[in-house]
Amino acid sequence: MSDNQDQNPRAAPTVCPYCGVGCTIEYAGNGKATGTAGPVNTSGEVCPKGVAAFDMVAHEDRLTEPLVREGGRFVTAPWETALTRVADALGEIIDHHGPDAVEFFASSNCTNEENYVFQKLARMLGTNNVDNCARLCHSSTVAAMSERLGAGAMTNTLDDLSETDCLLVTGANPAEQHPVIFRSYVLPAIRNGATLIHIDPRETDTTDAADIHLDVRPGYDIQLLNSMAKVVLDEGLADESFIGERTTGGAELKAHLRDLDVVAGADVAGVDADAVREAARAYAKADRAAIVTGMGMSQHTSGTDNVHALLNLALLTGNVGRPGTGVNPLRGQNNVQGAGDVGALPNVLPGYQSVTNPDARQRIADEWGVAPPSEPGLTETTAIHQFGDGVRAAVVFGENPAVTEPNANSARSAFDELDFCVVIDLFETATVDHADVVLPGSSWAEKSGTVTNTDRRVMRMRPNADLPGNARRDLDILTDIGQRLVDQADAFDYDGPEAVFEELARVNPLYAGMSYDGIGDGYQRWPFPADADSGTDVLHSETFASGERTAPLLPISPTPPADAVSGDQLVLTTGRALQHFNSGALTRRSETLMRMRGEDVLEIHPDDAAARDIADGDTVVVESDRGSVTVSAAVTTTIRPGVVFCTFHYQDPLANALTGDALDPVAEIPEYKHSAVTVRTAPAPTQE
Ligand code: SF4
Questions:
Q1: Are 645 and 429 in contact (CB under 8 A)?
Q2: Strands 353-354 and 348-349, how do they pair?
Q3: What is the CA radius of gyration of the chain?
Q4: 18 close to ligand 1 (CB < 6 Angstrom)
Q5: Which EC class is the enzyme in (predicted)?
Q6: How far is 564 from 446, CA to CA, in rounded Å?
Q7: How many CB atoms lie within 10 A of CB 677?
């Protein structure tokens, strides 16, 4: 704790603020957190981010007073002044341009209760323009799984991953990105004899534990997955009784794949055909085979189709609806699952009920006194293109789109086109540079509420510290804004987060049977119907979540990445590192984590480096049509030739200055995993 901010730290079990694993942590003294036994990390195990979670709580950069822009500069202001300015500006814009002129950026790093109130505010004001950064990570996964199976979340649980016979990990690196899942659930399965197949253009710590590695060319996953499906069919490894009883469209898919040439498909995907056959056999012959899927699959303009091709593989082999099987997206932020569950998405209400469903809107109207609008709102990736035009204001709650959106230089310019922007956050993030009002909110350690982890477990958070200075609890800030802006002000009059959760359980059928008391020190898992004794572990066992006994098999054809590579260009693919989280606004303020990984590097294969006269450690310029960055080169054989990699955790180099804003047509997710770039050595600094 810093000397000037006595936040009275104390230990109480709560949920780690970083990744979607949902480890239980608490204050340990000396300004540090520690793991403590919880529902997911049953022995109290945590990764370095969990240990360092307290580092940002009392950081000297914490915002402790509201800021309002006066004459181009920020000045501190009393809460009343700042909130009046927010209410007046948003009210005026809504009066002149209508409620759809405001975009609401929800926070997948904040609680279910906060996100529920946030989307309620947007919808009671008359717009469905509310989204969260699930748009940027797994919206395509959710779209494909919802369409086919009726639910977009992990089909199975972490516990039964450890009982699988074969793990097919696609576009994910759980050893670094979800380390406690890897150590506590994946490695035990491998020690018990499970085969690990890793599909990823990089050789990572996950690959080290794999039996088969398919280093696919970024953007060519469908060719690979269709080739695997073809091997399954050709070699009689499909589960024909499952196909007959639980699927439709089998004949169409088989006809679609009939003439596929596995060797040619593998060649386009950049992998060895024999290895593809070996992987297909291992997956299809296993009694229980589980897919674990990550952003390497989802963050493409073909992201939704990538996941459709993956779902075909699971359905063809009958690997859905049983323990140890399924399709399991690993969620990135600690409450990205919950933010979607509670309705912080433009097309669905709490519980993934479509905004176009009149019965669902009526259930909400019965609770709120106002029906939500019936047309889907704007996704955040589309809204940014309308800033200064149809969209005149943004409410940014605990997110940092100036760093996380693709084509970041363009996104930043777009923010400057707004008439008004308010940011609620802990620090002066890059997005704050574009704000008119900044409201200092609460960190994970200063709030209670619930979050929902990657395997659908709702768990409670408990305060480990008081607020610094005049910062306020996020829930209080949001309800205060609601009371100022919405005619039915009592709709935002709550007696704490538990009262919000009770309302959420009334309007969200997936949470209907849950309660704070029921969650207690443990968890409750969705779906948890009102009349059930507990939640459901394995989805889709008798019927799919869609309510149907069958799910469709779909013919999927590849489409090329949006950013064509030509000349001596390489493909940039971006991702995460163990020590950092999302835009890095929190983890880059940890001395411990910065000691472990203080700066980013560009991973480049020795062949590509030699062709450009680049040596390990050289400073290089990476350039795309959108921008350029300067970064150190790390020459390594762990990345496939033709591909370079860096993370998106740093403001400098800002990886998203390079990425493109072409979107998947269904999910509107950007193609972070495939950007055409040139790489060259940086000019030597000039001597004075
Ligand atoms: Fe656990 Fe994820 Fe937190 Fe690490 S970052 S301690 S794996 S929840």
A1: no
A2: antiparallel
A3: 24
A4: yes
A5: oxidoreductase
A6: 47
A7: 22
Ligand 1 center from residue 444 Cα (angstroms): 13
Q: Which atom of ligand 1 is nearest to the CA of 581?
A: 5
Q: Which tokens in the block code for residue 645?
A: 């990699």
| Dist. CA 637–CA 501, nearest whole Å | 50
Q: Does residue 487 contact residue 91 with C-beta atoms inside 8 Å?
A: no
Are β-strands 24-29 and 32-35 bridged in parallel, bridged antiparallel, or unpaired? antiparallel
Element of type H or E holding 267: helix 262-269
Q: Facing residues of 574 across strands?
A: 646
pLDDT tens sequence across 614-667: 999 999 999 999 999 999 999 999 999 999 999 988 888 999 999 999 999 999
Select from 14, 15, 16 the residue to mutate for testing ligand 1; criterion: most ligand atoms less than 8 Å from CB.
Answer: 16
421 lines ligand 1 (CB under 6 A): no
Q: Which helix (H) or strand (E) holds 130?
A: strand 130-131
Residue 688 has pLDDT above 60, yes or no: no
Q: Are 525 and 455 in contact (CB under 8 A)?
A: yes
Sheet holding 449-452, edge to edge: 449-452, 457-461, 524-525
Task: Determine the Cα–Cα distance for residues 396 and 441; give it in Å rounded to an integer.
Answer: 12
- The confidence score (pLDDT) of residue 1 equals 36
**What share of the chain in percent tops pLDDT 90?**
92
481 lines ligand 1 (CB under 6 A): no
Q: Which residues contact 326 (CB under 8 A, 6 or more apart)?
A: 154, 155, 156, 290, 291, 314, 319, 320, 538, 539, 540
What distance in Å separates the CA atoms of residue 243 and residue 303, rounded to the nearest whole number? 24
Check whether the bond before 653 is cis (ω within 30° of 0). Answer: yes
Among candidate residues 355, 323, 284, the one with its CA nearest the CA of residue 129: 355
- What are the residue ranges of helices labelled H in 539-650? 591-596, 606-611
pTM: 0.96
Q: How far is the CA of 342 from the centre of ligand 1 (A)?
A: 22
Whether the per-residue pLDDT at 245 is higher than 60: the answer is yes
Overall residue count recorded for the chain in this entry: 688
Do residues 560 and 324 lie in contact, with contact meaning Cβ atoms separated by under 8 Å? no
Peptide bond preceding 560 in cis form (omega within 30 of 0):
no
**Cβ proximity of 375 and 128 under 8 Å:** yes
Going from the Cα of 385 to the center of ligand 1, the distance in angstroms, rounded, reads 34
Q: Does ligand 1 lie within 6 Å of residue 580's CB atom? A: no
* Cα–Cα distance, 222 to 104 (Å, whole number): 34
Do 436 and 89 contact (CB within 8 A), yes or no?
yes
Looking up tokens 């659930």 gives: 185
Backbone angles phi, psi at 34, to 5 degrees: -145, 160
* Cβ of residue 16 lying under 6 Å from some atom of ligand 1: yes
Burial (Cβ within 10 Å: 0-12, 13-18, ≥19) of residue 555: middle
Distances in Å between the Cα of 63 and the Cα atoms of 57, 66, 322, 425, 447 are: 11, 8, 48, 8, 16
Residues 109-150 pLDDT 10s: 999 999 999 999 999 999 999 999 999 989 999 999 999 999
Does position 251 have pLDDT exceeding 50, yes or no?
yes
Q: How far is the CA of 331 from the centre of ligand 1 (A)?
A: 12
**438 has pLDDT over 60:** yes
State which amino acid sits at residue 20.
G
3-state secondary structure of 452: strand
Residue of 19, 45, 183 best suited for mutating to test ligand 1, as the one with most atoms within 8 Å of CB:
19
Q: Which two tokens stand for residue 523?
A: 């968890």
